[in-house]
Amino acid sequence: MARVSKQQMARNREEIIQVSSQLFRERGLNGVSVNDLMAAAGLTHGGFYGHFSSKDELTAIASRKALDDSASRWQEIRHQSQHDDFRTLVEAYLSPTHRDAAKDGCPITALASDVAREGDAKPVRDVYLEGVKALLERLESVSDIQDAEPRRQHVLVQLSLLLGALTLARATAGDALSDAFLLSAKNALIDAAV
C-alpha cells in the first residue's frame, strides 16, 4: 500500500474535523460512529487512530472547530450590519434558514443536550463551556447597558431566549408552532432592546 504524504495526512485530518463538526451538530455526539465520520470524510475506519487517540479527542476538536466557525459567522454578520448589531444577530439566529441548517448552525444549541449527558472528565465539556462564555461576551459587546452586573444578567436572559427558541423551533420543525417560537422570541428580544 502506498504511503500517504504528510501534506495529505494533514488534509485528511482537517477533512475529518470539518465533517465531524457538521455531523455532530446534525446528528448529535452519539448519533455518529467513527465509521460514519470516516466514511463521510471519504476515508476508511482504520485510518482514524492515525489522526486521533479517541472519539472523545475528535469530539472536542470538532466542537472547537464548530465554535470557531460560529464566531467567524458572528463577525461576518457584524460586518454586514449597517447599524444595529444585536438586531442583525437576532434576525439571523432566529431565522428559518438557521433552524433548518443544524449541521452548519450554532453548536451551542445543537450540542447542548449531548454535552449535558457527557461525563465531567470529557474534554468536550470544557470546550463547550468556553464557547458559551465566548458567546456571552459577544452579546455583551453589543449591549448598550453600561453597568457590568445588569449587563451580564441581561445577556444571560438574551442567550437563554435565543438558545431556547432555536431548540424548540428545531424540535417542532414542520409545524406552525416552530415558526411561532422563532417569531415570538425575535420580537421579544428586539422589542426589549429598543
TrEMBL record:
Keyword Methyltransferase found: no
- Give UniProt keywords alphabetically: DNA-binding, Transcription, Transcription regulation
Q: Which organism is it from?
A: Symbiopectobacterium purcellii
Annotated protein name in UniProt: TetR family transcriptional regulator
PANTHER family according to UniProt: TRANSCRIPTIONAL REGULATORY PROTEIN
- DNA-binding region per UniProt: 33-52
Question: What InterPro entries does the record point to?
Answer: DNA-bd_HTH_TetR-type_CS, Homeodomain-like_sf, HTH_TetR, Tet_transcr_reg_TetR-rel_C_sf
Under PROSITE patterns, the record lists: HTH_TETR_1, HTH_TETR_2
The coiled-coil segments of this chain are: none
Pfam families, alphabetized: TetR_N (PF00440)
